[in-house]
Amino acid sequence: MRTRATRSVFRLETRRRYSNPSERESPEACPAGEPEVGLDDSGWNDFIRAKVADGVRWDEVHVCRGPLTDHERWALESPCADTERAGRRLYVLDLAEVAEPPGLPDYDYWTHDESSVVRMLYDEDGKHPGNERLPDVEVAAHPVYWRENRARTGDRAG
């Protein structure tokens, strides 16, 4: 999601699988030990790098529930590593290892500058038909929660 954020961008990912056309066969190649299929990031990493260079903090929490699926393992090892090199900070919240935080939504969302909240809509197959802007800005407090409690989330960002 492109953004005009000037201070912070935050993403919460709660799904075990996404069906993004840019990912194509990469998740399926991962468990077979095959070489990674290149992603079409459409300039995404350059966009993140530019925003971070402008001083925007870019964080993401991926919620896992038990052993990683092939897709989760692939995503955390491949495209996530690419965006981390671009400046995004990734945190993993494994609910098999820690208690579920109170108020954790069961949907994906973005916040921009900790005020604008956009829920990501997905169908049963993990396809993303669109977004929904949420009026409830209480969700925007979540980025602060994750930053303050990152040691408990299995922080990969360091």
Task: Walk me through the structure.
The protein is of the alpha/beta class and 158 residues long. It has one domain (14-32, 44-153). It is built from five helices and six strands; from the N terminus they run E-H-H-E-H-H-E-E-E-E-H. The chain has helices at residues 26-29, 44-53, 70-77, 79-86, 142-148; strands at residues 8-13, 57-64, 89-94, 108-112, 116-121, 130-134. Strands 3-2-1-4-5-6 form a six-stranded mixed sheet, covered by helices on one side. Helix 2 (44-53) packs parallel to helix 4. The longest helix has 10 residues, at 44-53. The protein starts with 7 loop residues before the first strand and ends in a 10-residue tail after the last helix. Mean pLDDT is 75; it is low at 29-38 and 151-155.
Unreliable segments of 5+ consecutive residues: 29-38, 151-155
Instruction: Tell me the number of helical segments per DSSP (H or I, 4 or more residues long).
Output: 5
Shape: globular
Beta-strand residue fraction: 15-25%
Q: What profile does the largest beta sheet have?
A: 6 strands, mixed
**DSSP, total strands:** 6
Distance between the termini: 24 Å
The largest beta-sheet arranges its strands as 3-2-1-4-5-6
Radius of gyration (Å): 15 Å
Q: What helical percentage do the residues reach?
A: 10-25%
Structural class based on helices, strands and sheet pairing = alpha/beta
**Average pLDDT across residues?**
75
| Helix and strand pattern | EHHEHHEEEEH
- The total number of structural domains is 1
